[in-house]
Amino acid sequence: MLPLDAQDLLFRVRGGLYLDGAINKEGEIKASLSEAIKNLINKVNSQTFVLFGVDSSLYMWPKSRSSTEPGAMNETATCKTILKFVPLEVNDYLRKLPKKKSVKVEPLKVINLELLFELTRPELVESVTVQYNTKSSTFFKLTLPVDVVIFVNPDDPWEKLLNLVVEAVSVQLSEMDSCIQRYGKKNSIPIPQAFHFELPEKTTLTTVVYPAGITDDELEPQRKELHTKLSLGDKPFLRRPMAYHFPADEIANTYLRNIHKYIPLPDAEEFGVHVVHGSYTYHHYLQDDINDTGWGCAYRSLQTIISWFNFQGYINVPIPSHEEIQKMLVSAGDTAPDIVGSADWIGSFEIRTVLNTLGVTSKVLSFSTGSEIVMSARELSEHFIVQGTPIMVGGEPLAHTVLGVAWNESTGASKFLVLDAHYAGEDDWSSAIERGVEWKSADFWDQSEPYNICLPQRPEGI
Fold first, then answer.
1. 297 is catalytic
2. Catalytic: which of 79, 179, 297, 454?
């Protein structure tokens, strides 16, 4: 998956657009809503449409090209001119990544705008006719939560961005109309919502409109249509939990996501590289106010694996604590009750048991020595190609999460992307990336110790 183009400016335009009207004939609610949305699109393309810079005093009128900063935001301005007035929402943590280990990652520069309509200009006030009659009417009122994203080059003319905003908002309103027409019922109209996704071979975000209140399982037919249209294959990309996290979302997260993306891949000319598909959160020693140093690594690996299934939308469960995991093992008849509250170590078979209680099947491979893991690099590579799930490698007494394999078919050389559950530092991006994840060579695995590997299986469906 290509990284988003951080050289561009990402304008995110949001706001609730109010929709109301009357339905005079039974069964025509969807037609009435469609007509109201067409009228709303006309307003977006009028001089009443206004953009407001979040955390700023800048107002802009796309159609007239006017603004509250006419000396700067004029016909000769470029898109980067707005940075003088509107603060960036930026991934500040990326500026602090360890220089020795990480790839050079530019912060994604997000500029937040809100949209609204001007109602105070006398020449733009529409006439209102009030008609009294004895016919009963049904009235509708709802707010459409518009959320569009636009990538532009900082040196593009400002006029281009204004045109793109009007076009993007108009297109999204049309897509919201289509969503209502598809999922609306006689007495039930879902609120359409926009979600943004990172897709393979794209350096921008792809936006999809889904109806609120409809489950991801019920949305699979729509996703299948999109997968065919976008040539996405049989792995999930467009489930709602997989939506893109903007910088402010990352700051608010308790756990770090996808930290492996910030370290270099092995040489592509030497290795075929296959890594985890989708998102996960990093779980390790001493998190959650639990001192599990020396015994909790397998629990932490399991938490990371469960987070992956949550992010892919296959399950929706809170990340279980150590004690909750122990209780699940007791309930499954896997261990004796005295494990609850203990510092007992668990392994690959126990992880399989817990995943099974969550509806996730797993395979367990057993190796008598670490050298056998290296000899199975091709098989493990196939796992990441087909399944794409994180795997847990359990030895005596350590457990590791593996997120990928690099393998040379000609020489048999291999590397393993290890997420270290034994990391006991702060959840700081720089420290965690420097000390918590690394491509390990074949000699990382103890050549004299046995290992069991739990390979969770991805459920069918997209």
1. yes
2. 297
Domain ranges of the chain: 9-250, 253-456
Catalytic-labelled residue, pool 5, 156, 344, 422 = 422
CB-based contacts of 105: which residues, under 8 Å, 6+ apart?
3, 6, 94, 97, 262
181 near 30, Cβ under 8 Å? yes
290-345 tens-digit pLDDT: 999 999 999 999 999 999 999 999 999 999 999 999 999 999 999 999 999 999 99
Q: What share of the chain is helix, strand, coil (3-state, %, to 5)?
A: 30, 25, 45
The answer for residues whose C-beta is within 8 angstroms of residue 311's C-beta and 6 or more apart is 241, 242, 278, 279, 280, 281
The CA distance from 83 to 157, in Å, is: 14
The catalytic position among 147, 177, 420, 427 is: 420
What pLDDT score does 20 carry?
85
Model confidence, pTM: 0.91
Average pLDDT score over residue span 100-116: 79
Average pLDDT, the chain: 91
Does domain 253-456 sit in CATH 3.90.70.130? yes
Please indicate whether residue 227 is annotated as part of the active site. Answer: no
Known catalytic residue: 283?
no
